[in-house]
């Protein structure tokens, strides 16, 4: 398998964690989101993935974009170790946390959105960072509320095995720290993040550990 | 089952279509996103769903938020008629289209985002509408590129049965029309939208057919 991505993309980071947790070897193909006016916007990447977003997973000549669809595909084709519980309501809880991060936090703070704020709406650096922190802090506070004190929350977001929810949470927190978000009132998600950081699958997926990492 | 939603929420609209396609009866509980400073932001809704977003599905005292998690839950607990194909790669294709709409088009044009643009960034009406059209048109053009000429595209997004992809596409197109987006160069998605519009499940889920509909 090949994974087209960018070291800092938190969507690519999710897929890297899942591949590692499932012990699936893959080849990294870097797509630099800033160089050449954005390598994701032009051929050959655009032909592989018309959404012009990373990541894309490739198996032979078959390609699949969209990180959440990739997670489900990996779960269906390589079910062990599982990243979803067995029970339908428990699976739903894990997916609700993961999807909330993927749909309702991450897209608002994507690189292309920050670029639009700066170049089209002429928003200054301070207001752009306030935008970032607003959505990240509001969103992560909701994740904290979903997890804190819930009987199904364990060492990880759901019980004592990592799931889709942790796979999405950890990259979002890495991003939030990069933008100096205030995580002080979020003891549950920072505790879970620290537990994940002890696992090689998460360590090896970190942006700084990627072949295209920059300072 | 109870579905907490708002007639114009395209996330709630997705779930309404899926419930109808699966012939599952449900009770609508309106949550007015504009009245009372936003009924989704306060008790009792906030206690039901700490993300303060609609929709939420409730069964007895169990509640599930996040439309994409709800779709997967309904598919797992009420598999017939299916809204996903059987083959893993085909399922992945359907999910990639659906998730691209849910993660990469819809959240940027959500009510809370448009409110932030207006009230916090003091963006004028014209620039706010340009923002909307930018993300909707760019995103829907990518969906058109994923569907047009693809051998798996049929009467609907995937073959001749409605799937998660159609469930997500139709509400997004309804929204795009409301904001006067240019859909002229998107013959495939507008053809599929017209095919869906012939089905009672889609008709009965439309915003104008809801008990809380306003002019």
Provide a descriptive summary of the structure in words:
Two copies of one chain form a homodimer. Chain A has nine helices and four strands, in the order βαβαββααααααα. Chain A has about 220 residues and is α+β, with helices and mostly antiparallel strands. Chain A has two domains: about 80 residues, Glutaredoxin; about 120 residues, Glutathione S-transferase Yfyf (Class Pi), Chain A, domain 2, CATH 1.20.1050.10. In chain A, strands 2-1-3-4 form a four-stranded mixed sheet, covered by helices on one side. In chain A, helix 4 runs parallel beside helix 7 and helix 7 crosses helix 8. The longest helix of chain A is centred in the middle third of the chain and has 23 residues. In chain A, about 50% of the residues are buried. The mean pLDDT of chain A is about 95. Chains A, B: InterPro entries: Glutathione-S-Trfase_C-like, Glutathione-S-Trfase_C_sf, Glutathione_S-Trfase, Glutathione_S-Trfase_N, GST_Zeta, GST_Zeta_C, GST_Zeta_N, Thioredoxin-like_sf. Chains A, B: One of its GO terms (molecular function) is glutathione transferase activity. Chains A, B: Belongs to the GST superfamily. Zeta family. Chains A, B: This is Maleylacetoacetate isomerase.
Name a few traits of the molecule.
homodimer; 215 residues; alpha+beta; Glutaredoxin; Glutathione S-transferase Yfyf (Class Pi), Chain A, domain 2; 2 domains; 4-stranded mixed beta sheet; 9 helices; Glutathione-S-Trfase_C_sf (chains A, B); GST_Zeta_C (chains A, B); Maleylacetoacetate isomerase (chains A, B)
